[in-house]
Each structure stands twice: as C-alpha cells, then as structure tokens.
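Predict the 3D structure for this chain.
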Amino acid sequence: MKSLGTPLRIALASALRGRILDCGSGDDLFGPILRTGGNEVVSLDMDLAALRKTPGRRVAASCAKLPFADDAFDAVWACAVIEHVAHETLPEMIRVTHVGGRVIAITPNRHSPFDCLKRMAGLSTWDSQPGHVRLYGLEELQQYGEVHGELRWLPGLGRFFWKHPCLGHVWVLDLDVTPALKEKARQKGAAP
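Done. Predicted structure below.
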C-alpha cells in the first residue's frame, strides 16, 4: 500500500535538515519535500524500478541492514516501510544517524480502533495488507521514544490523535537521537 502525503507527514518531512536518508523511498513521494532547503538526500529502496525514477543519490538495499557507516546522516525518514521488513529496522536507522539527529518512522497502529470497524464492514485492515510482515505494538515503539498518533480522516482532531496514539490509525515515532538511544540501539543489534 502506498503512503499518503498528509499535512502532518508533509510538515514532519519539511522540518528535516542536512543529510537525510529516505529509507524505503518507494515512488519518491516525500523526496521532493526532503530535497528542499539544500538538503542532501539519499534514497534507499529494494524496488529497482522505483529507484530508477528517483533523482539524486540512490541505493538499492534493505532497511534491515543499512550499507552506511555509523553516524552518516543528520536524519532518517521512514514512512510506511518498517512494517514491510521482518527484522526490526529501528536500531539500524539510529545507528546511521548521529547524536543530535532525528529519526521519523511512520507505521500502522496494529491495534487501530478503526481497523475493528473496517473488519466488521468487510474492508481491508492493516493485518490483511499485502506486504505487511511486521506490525509493531505501541510498547515496542515506546522503547525508543515518544509515539504519536495520526488519523487522516478527521484532520480537525489532529492534536487529539497526536496526544493519544492508541486511537490513531498510524503511529509516528519521532526520535531525537541521544547517546542513550544510540546505546539502546547498539544493544538491540542489527540484522544478521
């Protein structure tokens, strides 16, 4: 399923500065936003056809084992990608981001109340989406930092869902990389 360029996501992507890894760049939806303001963006994806259409530096690789040195980036943007990788990717994203940098990962809420309604109506839910191999629980994400919620269907209630992630349809993990977070990521380890 393709990601959506919601106002919240556009604002988050617009706030990133410096050398940015667009992890799981796909069809380059956020690339034009990330590349503004003199930012240097590296687009990473396993879809070679999508990468060929993406301008700038492109790397074909998995988010589970990032082919970059420690502290190589000022920020990592990962929208609608970590649920497509069986191995936990957050330690790798933190590893390649220097202390003081930022990691933003947007992923489905495994327990979204809206999925319950969709299931009753016979509609597709997060756990039935093709390609979703790992849906995170709130506690898993909170190990790394604060988690917020997003619900695109009720934009006027954005602040409410931001403060109450359990009710959001998706989760936004917005991390400032600290020495303690780097150590936690090191302990979690990278993909085999």
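The mean pLDDT is 90.
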